[in-house]
Amino acid sequence: MWKVSEEIRERMQAVSEALKAAESVYIFSHIVADGDALGSCAALCRAMRRAGKKADILFEDDIPDNLKFLDRGYVRFVDEDTQLEKRDLCVALDCSSTSRFPKREHLFRSAGEKTVCIDHHISRQDMADLNYVDSTASATAEIMYELLLVMGEEPDREIGEAIYTGIATDTGNFQYTNTTKKTHLITAELYDLGIDTKKINVILYQSVRPQKLRLRNLILDEMEMFCGGLASIAWVTLEMYREADAKVDESDGINAVLRDIRGVEIGVFLREKHKDEIKVGMRSKEYLDVSEICAGMGGGGHRHAAGCTLHCTLPEAIPRVKDAVEKALSAFQAENPGLLKSPEE
Q: Rounded to 5 degrees, what are φ and ψ at 305?
């Protein structure tokens, strides 16, 4: 079995003890849940229930179709008016700010005797009473696997499939630079639990609705190249969702498509959430730290994957974001002449 290092074991001790002592928990993650968010939540919920404790995952929006297999009666849907009985702990996974689950923030702050945050995103401030953040982990699910071992909870097949989903989706199927030797070694142990990777991968990647493809076509028709081909940008509007009859989560993955274009260093995707609220996602290929670009607009994230929210219209957001990217690329090229070459040169 994977041996958790003494350093990590020591750092996890306070969170581990709190979870072991708790008889009841509410589990939270960010809106528009991805595989790491729901996978981490499902793994913890399964482990707590298996230990005879009360555990529920609280959601405020729909679960993406390709992740519904992870919900084995764990999820309760709530909103800003929901009031719940108190539990020992409220645990936030894969997000370091309550702004990532606005309709549940009141529950996170009031429905638990103590709050806990477990995440792998760089955090600028602690959001809970107990915080465990490891930005070197490939996914929160990777952290969760080690935490369960520290707690003395032996993962089973169901937990293994949830952990695998979290790691696989957050590493781009083990392609992204956040993938490490440790990631592969932990994943190898999941196979020993009897996980069905063929089933999981078919559900995750080979069950696309036609509406998602129609939406992708609409989005890519709007794509623009800039900075001499070193950057690409595209966006989705509320009207485009309606035209394609698509769901919000069906625009996921466009960032990677934009970044994967030959010669592109930064791919940028803007999603219109409301007429005056725009979600921005950025991905970089090799050199640029997009978390710094997004931090300049009130956001953050990882070196190669970050985002922010702009409170303006889409026509206002597009030039603002392009300007930020252009300045970052220009500064990088000035400091590293010849390292990045425009495909248009």
A: -155, 115
Helix, strand and coil percent figures for the chain, each rounded to 5: 45, 20, 35
What percentage of the chain exceeds 90 in pLDDT? 88
- Cα separation, 45 vs 189, in Å, equals 20
* Strand, coil or helix: 313: coil
Concatenated DSSP letters of 109-147: HHSEEEEEEEESS--SS--SSEEEE-TTSS-HHHHHHHH
End-to-end Cα, the chain, rounded Å:
52
Residue 138 binned pLDDT confidence (cut-offs 50, 70, 90) = very high
- The answer to whether 248 and 241 are in contact (CB under 8 A) is yes
| pLDDT of 343 higher than 90 | no
Which tens digits make up the pLDDT trace of 49-104? 999 999 999 999 999 999 999 999 999 999 999 999 999 999 999 998 898 899 99
User: In whole angstroms, how large is the CA radius of gyration of the chain?
Assistant: 20
Cα-based distances in Å from 341 to 176, 290, 344 = 22, 18, 8
Q: How confident is the model at residue 240 (pLDDT cuts 50, 70, 90)?
A: very high
Cβ–Cβ under 8 Å, residues 166 and 140: yes
The H or E element that residue 274 is part of is: strand 266-274
CA–centroid distance for 12 within its chain: 21
Dist CA 322 CA 331 (whole Å):
14
In whole angstroms, give the CA distance from residue 74 to residue 229.
45
Two structure tokens written together for 58: 């609280």
Q: CA separation (Å) from 261 to 108, 150, 169?
A: 40, 42, 20
Which of 60, 43, 102 has the alpha carbon at shortest distance from 248?
Answer: 60
Residue closest to 235 by CA, chosen among 319, 291, 298: 319
Q: What is the edge-to-edge ordering of all strands in the sheet holding 24-28?
A: 75-77, 54-59, 24-28, 87-93, 112-119, 130-133
